[in-house]
Amino acid sequence: MSSRVYLDYAATAPLLPEVRRALDAFYDASSNEVGWQANANSLHSDGRKAFAALEDARARIASVLNVRPHELVFTGCATESSNAALTGIVLDVLKHKGQVPHIVTSTIEHDATFKTVQQLEKLGFCQASYVSPNRAGFVELESIKQAMRSDTTLVSLIVAHNETGAINDIARIGQYLSEQGVLFHIDAVQALGKMPFDLGTLPVDLASFSAHKIGGPKGIGLLAVKTGTNLVPLLSGGGQEAGLRSGTQNVAGAFAFAAACETACSDYSVLEAETQRLRNLRDFLYEQLSSLPRVHMTVPCDAGSKNYLPNIVNICVEDVESETLILQLDLNGFSVSGGSACSTHSLKPSRTLLELGIPRDLAQGALRISMGPQTSKEDIDSFIATFEKVLSSL
Ligand code: PLP
């Protein structure tokens, strides 16, 4: 095998060349802007340069997301963003209303949300209801309505699913929740850069993002907090990020996140063309894999469908474990995942796939193929040929 084919973009996307160039410029010690590397909270001129670079990054991302710069809080990752949003709201309600809030979320959330809600519940800080998806992987407004109670304070929902690619109707759900006066947090990690996404017009109060899913570096995330939404901060300390996230800011990370956002999301026609290119690859891969023996498509994604992300195909293979498939494909030069990346080191079948009604033994053979800007038609052709070979050898 000459070169490897990376098909695990939903786990993390390789650094975009534009981002690498931005980081090179940032760290170029000969540059006049060496002050960028100072502490953004220092009063001297180097510190002020770093602060200006941080605020420039914030403003550029705000412009891409169509929100106001002060509504963006830099964090270390999306897991931290979701923890800060959920815990922050729960503590605020406990503090100001003296009551234990009720949260509605879904059974198929990423662990960053799911386990945070479970933890808050176990600690007695909140009560929670978990809504199941329909068989196609979508969380429906009706199910959310049924789970809501008079004391429901917050609903937290994934926008685009990291395993199935199913895209929830956030605009409709958010509209209903805002009419009910219920706060809405979304996990927009997989949605950013893969679909049109205008946070400014969405009826949501809090949104989590991560740079490394769109070709930015690891170690920098964002929490968007709509003006007027009150949170008790998760991290206390020096009061950075308007008191919402103490700790010296990762200016280089923010700078690179802004470059990734602008490259991947700012030009609508570029985004549209790229998502269409990926959708064509997805449809081809889906069609080819669905014709193979022992292969079951996890969700029913019609050709051209915009209800699923353009870059994810998830299958379940009979009589074989994900780990075996992943390792065999790896030996042949392909990087893919089983469940979500965070659970690939566990042998447990994916909670999401079980929730979709997929039998446990079939869910053990799950495989997620996820594509990105560097994925070509040739990559997909050679993946299919190799996958067939691996499948028939097992
Ligand atoms: N939410 C979703 C949907 C994800 O796919 C991920 C990453 O796997 C996360 C949250 C967590 O993101 P991070 O790695 O930035 O903590």
Largest sheet, described in full?
Answer: 7 strands, mixed
- Low-pLDDT stretches: none
Output the structural class.
Answer: alpha/beta
Instruction: Indicate the overall shape.
Output: globular
Count of runs of 4 or more consecutive helical residues: 12
Give the overall average pLDDT.
95
Strand order of the largest sheet: 2-8-7-6-5-3-4
Helix content: 25-40%
The sequence of SSEs as H and E is: EHHEHEHEHEHEEEHHEEHEHHEH
Rg, rounded, reads: 21 Å
Could you tell me how far the N terminus lies from the C terminus, measured between alpha carbons in angstroms?
20 Å
Strand content: 5-15%
What does the secondary structure layout of this molecule look like, with pairings?
Blueprint: E1 5-6, H1 17-27, H2 45-65, E2 72-75, H3 78-97, E3 102-106, H4 111-122, E4 127-131, H5 141-147, E5 152-158, H6 170-180, E6 183-187, E7 206-210, E8 221-225, H7 251-265, H8 268-290, E9 295-297, E10 312-317, H9 322-331, E11 334-335, H10 351-355, H11 360-363, E12 366-370, H12 377-393
Parallel strand pairs: 1-11, 3-4, 3-5, 5-6, 6-7
Antiparallel strand pairs: 2-8, 7-8, 9-10, 10-12
Helix pairs in contact: 1-7, 2-7, 3-4, 8-12
Bound molecules: pyridoxal-5'-phosphate.
Short key terms for the protein model shown above:
394 residues, alpha/beta, seven-stranded mixed sheet, 12 helices, 12 strands, 14% strand, binds pyridoxal-5'-phosphate
